[in-house]
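Sample intake sheet
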Amino acid sequence: MKTYLLPSIKITIILLVILSGLYPLAIAAIGKLTPGGGDGVTVTLNGKVVGYANIGQKFTKDKYFWGRPSAADYKADAGAGSNKGPSNADYLKDVKAKIDTFLKHNPGVTTAQIPSELVTYSGSGLDPDISPDGARIQVARVAKVRNLPAGKVLALVNQHVEQPLWGLFGPAKVNVLQLNVALDQLK
C-alpha cells in the first residue's frame, strides 16, 4: 500500500494543476481569439446591444420573423430541451397549439408547409437559427404587416442565409435576431 500512496498523491497534484489551472487558462486564451473575444458576439441596433448572435431571442409580433420555440423560454441560464418525445400526449398538444398559432398568424400557409423547427423545441432551447424555408414561409406575413413588397423582404431573407461551413458541414441557416435587426433597418 505504501508503494502506491506517494505516486498516487503526486499524480493527483499534477492532474490538479493541469486540469484546474493550465487547461482553463488555455481555453480562456483560445476564447480570446474567437469572434467576440470569448464573451459572445453581440448584435447592435442604433448603437445599442440588442442580443447575442448565438442565443435565441423571443419574437412574437407579426412584424418580426419568429424563431424556434424554446422550452427554457429563451433564458440563457436555463437552456434545456423539453425532454418530451413524439409519443408524449402533452408534447403533441403543445406542437398542435404551436401549429394552430402559426396558421392563425400566417394565412394561406398549410400545416404541411410549416417547417418542423418552427413548432418544435431545439435540444438547447436557445437555438438562434431557423432554416431558410422557415424564414421564407414567414415573408408574406412580415411584408404585409410592414407594408413592404414581399420581394424586398424575400431578398433580405436570402441575403441572411448562411451556407454550411465549406459547403459540407451542417444545413443552411438564417440567424433570426440578425435578420430582424436588418428588417428594422430596412427602408
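Comment: Residues 2-32 form the longest helix (31 residues). The beta strands are 42-45, 48-52, 129-130, 161-162, 173-175.
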